[in-house]
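Record format v2
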Amino acid sequence: MNLWMISVVGATCVENEYKNGESLVVRGLSKSWAAHKALSGISFGQPAGTVFGVAGDNGAGKSTLLKILASVLSRDKGQVTFQGVSLDERTRWRALIGYVPQELALDDRLNVRETLLFWAAARGFSLTERKRFLEVAASDPLISGFLDKPIRECSGGMARRVSLIVGLLGDPLLILLDEPFAGADHHSRQLMLERLDLLRKRGRTILVSSHEEDVLEELCDHILCLQDGELCTRVDETA
Amino acid sequence: MGRCDGLKNGSARKRLQAFWALIKHDLRASRTALLVTLIVVLLVSTLALRVAGQQSSSEDASKQPDLSVSASIIDEDQSILGGLLVNYLEGIRYVTAIYDDTLPRAMERLQADEIIVAFRLPPHLLEEASTGSLRDPIELWLNPRMPAESHQLGILVRQYAAALNYVYGSVFGYQRLYVELGGDENTSWEKATGHSLNTVMMYIDRDRFVKTGDLLSFNLILYALSGVLIVLSLLPAMGVLAGTIRLAGTSYEDRLLVSCGPTSLMAVRLLMGFVWWVLLIGPLLITLRITGVLQSIFAIAFALLSVYLMMALIMLAVGRARAPGVSVLQTGWLVFFLFMVMGGVLYPTSLFPNWLDQGAKFTPLYPAMQTIYRAFLNRGVVPARDVLVTCWPLLPAFIAALLFGRRRV
């Protein structure tokens, strides 16, 4: 099996004790913007090796939930743990997660190769690890065809694929994806779905938000439906 | 061993890797601007070299007093008092010339900028002084084209006037003191006389109000050069502000935050500002050192670095204000100009009203401006204490950056 990016750094083993139980545990998570309640008492548990989808209309609180879990936004109330590590232990938490924000968040002055090298270094990869990483990237079907293309010249789908790869740097155990397929063409979408499926099989815990329910239904084990900051339904799907 | 433990162990190394990656990325992004700035700074250094060289050769700082005062005395009735005053003033080391003039002649000298001040002693001053009841005041004309010197002289005159009033109050008021004291007549007489003599001694102590370094001569070129260096030191701090605003709250910053944490982001901005500071200040200081305008550049460099760090730390905090980017940028520039004006970078604070002049001494840039200007007057040499004083604003600025400058989560 070709592991591509996911085995670049260190051991890729997942702590088995969480494999069957709940790996990500969210209890009573709330967040308000002044009078507006963005999230209200959200609770759910997600086992390792599963993909959960977060569905909902615009303004339902999908991005807010993912930003809080990515530790880039504070919460008002609630407990969040992943494999026993609390969200309050920020340094340890950030070492465990990979975050792909809704916007591309890439420097369009760089080409894809430079972008990967930059984010690998920013993630703390040593020079040797970065070289190894680039060697692996050269054969990764997600990006291998356009490594020397400047980001500003990449299509929406290409840029989304680069953004996903950047989010997967360091082989994170918890992967948070905020609208990762927005603007991606069918081919790019399929490649990304295949990669996420592969990561699930490798035991990664994946939370992906999207307002495209058909994509979520195709990919996810479970879908969390958000409406006005509250969890409304939980639709079980077979991956 | 768990994965988290492994990550924790290598966390310092990873942070360092991340830090250098961010620095290299920012340096690469600014390389064109850095190169253009370097060329401009080298050109300016060459120009400064010529101007400063001319200025330093025209002055011999070791022979010049700190303050040069030339004055005219207009004694209407040519009394002995006028003569005594001329003799007294001629003996003071910072008085370069004293003219015994008529009023029209003194006005001509003022117009021609030969003198800074003209004193007019009214007729019958001696007779009135002997009785302790002056009817006509002593008049002073100060040169409006020399505001800084006139201001310094005004302070001196006020101090001498206070001492003279004290003498008057003592010498002519001892009878009243005697009445108030009561008791032994001899003791009263001795106390009153002793008190009067003390104040007279205070008055005739010529250097009492002016000690070396208390008053600075005003050299426009060196003052402007000090101001320019401070402005150049402050500009990289505005770059820190711009960088903070540009990234604040963006997904790009979120991603950086997850990758390398908030401390690296702050440290990288400060270090990038430092790179700009070195580029802007380094060549100029080296030029001044090579030309001999400065014997040592360390004191000035230290003070300028302190200025940059202070402002950069403040801008880290300002940049995090929850307001639209344009408003935050405007606030930053407002702070920039306020500090410059109040610190005496644009104009000497002696031009301000007295209360504002006193208040300006407690502003962050004032000690740096004074130290750098003094250093220029002394060819770069200033006491270590004066240099260290420039650091006091760093502590509150550091606290502000720590409290408000970090990316809040």
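Chain B has 17 helices and four strands.
Chain B has two domains: 18-60+219-405, 69-204.
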